[in-house]
Amino acid sequence: MSSIFITGGSGFIGRRVVAALAKAKHRLYVLVRSEARLAEAMKEVGCSDMSSITAVRGDLTKPSLGLSPEDRQLLRNVDTIIHAGGPMDILLQEEEARQLFVHAAQEIAGLAKTVHDSSGLRHFIHVVGFKSPYSDRDNDSHAPTYDDRSDPPYEKMKFEADLLIRQKLHAWGIPLSVVNPSVVIGDSYTGITEQTGGLGILVNAVRRNLMALAPGGPDYWLPLVHADHVAAFISALVEEANPVSDTYYLLDDKRNSPGITELVRLIAREVRAAAPIGSIPPRLIKKLLNAGADKLVQLPGQSVDFIVQSEFPTASKRAIETKYDLNLSVNESALPFVITDLDYRLSHGAVRLPEPFRFHRRAGLATIESEGSGIPIVIVHGTFSSSLALLPMAQSLAKLGHPIYLADLPGFGRSPYHHHKGSGLQGFERAVEELIRSLDSKVIIAGHSFGGYLAAKMLETVPDRIEKAVLLQPVLESISSRYRSSFRTQTGLQFLSKSSLMRKMLQTKSFDNAEEIPESYLSYVHNECKSTRVRKTTAEVMSRLSRPEHITVHPARWNPKQVAILWGTTDTEHALPRSMDAFRVTPLPYAHQFPISHPEAAARSIQMALKQ
C-alpha cells in the first residue's frame, strides 16, 4: 500500500484516479480548495468509501501550494506524488497559465525535494499532455528550451512545467513518470464526459452545422483516450515496485484510429447533423479563426492544434498495458455515448443528481439509477421529456426500496439514436426490450405517454419479463395530424421560445394551467431543443405517432393482471381506445403531463396500482 499526495483530485481525470487508488486501498492525501467539491466529485464517479482519503487544504497558485505547516509535515512521509492539477482551458491567458502550471510545478517540485530528503520519495507521476515536445532525453539541465510562439499560453506553460519538473527531479535522482494523455474523453462504458472542452468543442461545432469541411485531410487525426483508462494506467504505475523514469503517451496507434474526417462524420451521425462534404487544411482554419471568425462561430483557434498528422511512441505504454493486463484502446461502442453525453451537456450544462441517484448506462440506453432490493422499476418517458424530467416522480418511488432505472429513449436525453432502418417505432421498442433483458429479473415497467405505448408493447414482446406494466397517459391511438410533417415540427422546435413553449403546452392540455408547469421542466425542454439530435428525434416520433399504421398494440394478448392504467381526465388531446375497457383504469383529475406536474401523486398512484 502506497501513501500518495495528489493534486487535481477533483478534476475530470483526477477524480477517477483518486477513486481507483482508493479502491486499491492506498492512503491518499488530496490537495483541495474545497472539501465539498472533492466529496461531490467522488460521488459522481461512484466512490462512496472515503475512509482512505484525506483532503488537504491548499492552492496550486500560492507559495508552498498554500499548505499549512502541519500539512507540510504530514506530507513528508508520502512515498508517491501525483501531479494532475491544472484546468483544461485552452483559452487561459499567459499570466494565469503561468501561475497554474509553471508556478505550481516549482512548488510541487520543491515539496518533492523535501519529501525525498526526509524519507526518500519513491515515485513522482506528472500528468502533462501528448503535445509536449519534451521526452526523457530532455531531462538533463543542458537540454534546449522549446519555443514556438504560435502555441497558446495554455500549451506553452504546460510544456515549460514539464521541462522544469523533468530537469529538477533528474538532478535529485527522483524516478519520474511523465504521463501524456491525448484528448481525454468520457468513460469507456457509460460515455459520461463531465469536461466539455477537448472533443466537446468539435461536437459543438458539428451539432451547429459548422463542419461542412472537416479540419484536415486523410492524414490528420485526433488522438483520444478514455478518462477511466488514464486512471487505470496511473494506478498501474503506482503499483510499480521499482519505478524508472519514462514517458508514456496514452493514445492508440494512428493506424488503428479514425482519421479526422471519419471522426467528424461519426459525430455528425450521432448528433443527427450534416456530415462534412470535404476537408480544409487546419492551418487555413486557424488563420480564419484567429482573424476573428472564432467569435462568430464560437470555435477557438487553439482547438485546431490538437488535430495532428504526427505519430507518437507507444512502446512504453504497451509494456505497462501488457504487464498489468490492461486494454486502453478507445472503445468504439462507447463513442456514441461519449458524443451524446457531450451533446446533452452542451445543451444543459452541468447536471447534478440528488442522492441516491447516479448517471449510468444499461444496454443501449443512458440511465439514471438508484440501488435497492426487490423487483426493479423501469421508468420510460415520452416526448418533450427524458429521464431527468421524471426524476421527481422516481424520487418518491425510490422510497419503496426497489431498484430504479430511468431510461433515456434513443435520441433523447443522453442516449444515442438507435439508427434502426425501419420507418416505424421498432428501434425504440427494441431498445426498451434490450434494457429489460439486461436486468436479472422480472421488472415493473412504468411508461408515460409515448413511453406508455412502449411499455404496452413490452407486454407483447417480453411478457415473461414483466411483473407489472403501469401505463401513465399512454398514447395508444394516433395523435393530431398537425404533427404529420416532421420537417415542420423540427423547424418549429428550433425557433421555439420559452414563452411560446408554455403557450403550446397549455393549448394542447399537457398541463391544466401555467402554475402546474415546473420552471425547471420548462427550462429543460427549451434547452433540450437546442440539440439537433433531440429536435429531429422528437419530430420523427411525433410524426409516426400521428399515423395509425405505426400504433400497433394488441390488447387481446395482454394479461389483465399485469396491466394498470392511470389516466388524467382533463387531457382533451388524447383518448383511451375502447379496447382498454377490459383493463383496470384509474382516473386522475390531471392533464397529460401529470407525472411531471404532480410527481408525488403519480408515484402514490403507481404504488397503489402495484398493490392491486
UniProtKB/TrEMBL annotation:
Domain AB hydrolase-1: residue ranges: 376-525
Record-level Gene Ontology MF annotations: aldehyde dehydrogenase (NAD+) activity; hydrolase activity
Gene3D superfamilies in alphabetical order: alpha/beta hydrolase, NAD(P)-binding Rossmann-like Domain
Keywords: Hydrolase
Source domain of life: Bacteria
InterPro entries: AB_hydrolase_1 (IPR000073), AB_hydrolase_fold (IPR029058), FAR_NAD-bd (IPR013120), NAD(P)-bd_dom_sf (IPR036291), NAD(P)-dependent_oxidoreduct (IPR051783)
UniProt-listed Pfam families: Abhydrolase_1, NAD_binding_4
Keyword Heme found: no
An annotated GO cellular component: cytoplasm
Domain (Thioester reductase (TE)) ranges: 6-234
Name the UniProt record assigns to this protein: Alpha/beta fold hydrolase
Protein's organism: Paenibacillus oceani
